[in-house]
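Alkaline phosphatase
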Amino acid sequence: MGSRVVTKTFRTGLAAVLAATSSAPVLAQDTSANPASALETEAGHPGPARNIILFVADAAGVSVLHAASILAHGEPLSLNIQRWPHLGLSETSPVDEFVSDSANGMSAIMTGVKTRNGVISQGPDAVRGERDGAPTKTLLEYAEERGLLTGVISSQSIADATPAATYAHANDRGKQGEIFTQLFNPRFGDGVDVVFGAGRQRIGEQLGALETGFEQLAQEHGRPIYTSLEAVPETNRHPIVVAETMDVARATMDALDILQSSPRGYFLVVEWDAHTDDPQEGLQNMADFDRLIAEVQARVDLDDTLLLFTADHSFGLQVDGGSRGEELLAGYDAWKTTGSDEVIVRLDHVLINDTHSAEEVPVLAIGRGGERVSGYFPNTHLFDVILDAWGWRHD
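Tokens:
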């Protein structure tokens, strides 16, 4: 899972944002020849989305959202995203098992093709660590091909499974050095425009084993690889930051400063880890992510922008006790001081089974094209939701 960062500060003065979204259907025509076309067609019907932001809370199933709401606000249903008008439940299994990891979970969303655990945006003919499968075209590659600006942000290693599935293709999620180099050799367009993530030490070590490194890649491709957000000059409109830890809130706002200047629109993917093997850390990450999403929601125009929230897989956490006014994580401090590494964690009101689980995960949507999020569906349906919101056809 890698290291996690809890962002402590946010821009102030932000209340819960409530917004309505159009319920009219998204047109099915291909608008790739003119991505910046007006949102209203000649017939007066709503047109495609111009911008799409996908928020992925790693391991945040229904139970994690519920617990994060209680932790942060003292009540259920108090997260900003829980007020969004469109809700569905996404089934996340790979082709051969019931429980997904992040590689298959995110690859299915990005490509519309379920694969095997450990495989990054390749078909199920891949064998992890042994044989490549057919590369499956990602939503980010569709966006790059059509001239949109693109961005990928993660609290985790930028070459770890969830962010990697947006831009890379590999038979093993562990090959982070190989995965990272694919940022500089895109199959479509000029590659990801804004890249902000963690994992510098691990990626650097693997690059060294490949007889290359950050400096060498930067020189070969003319793209500096910065160690922090603060180091990026305002003049660089295609920045790459690979740090040890990442402030996802600042990174997202910095990315929007660049992406919102696009004349053709943009596609942004933001991941924040919400694994609850440490329940305090994971639930606080989810609460902070929700505050960030509310801030983004207040900044964008929902008439031409689709916001989606989901998780790549679920996790074994449940709230099974407690009363209003009581501390949700009562017993946490005592457990933390023991340093126990037991798989089953028993707090007063919360039970944690330290493993991924097979339950469906929530998908929440607001803005242009969000009405297609409804009911139960496989996670591959999100690929269709996003393509349809753009008005594009599959290759």
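DSSP finds eleven helices and 13 strands in the chain.
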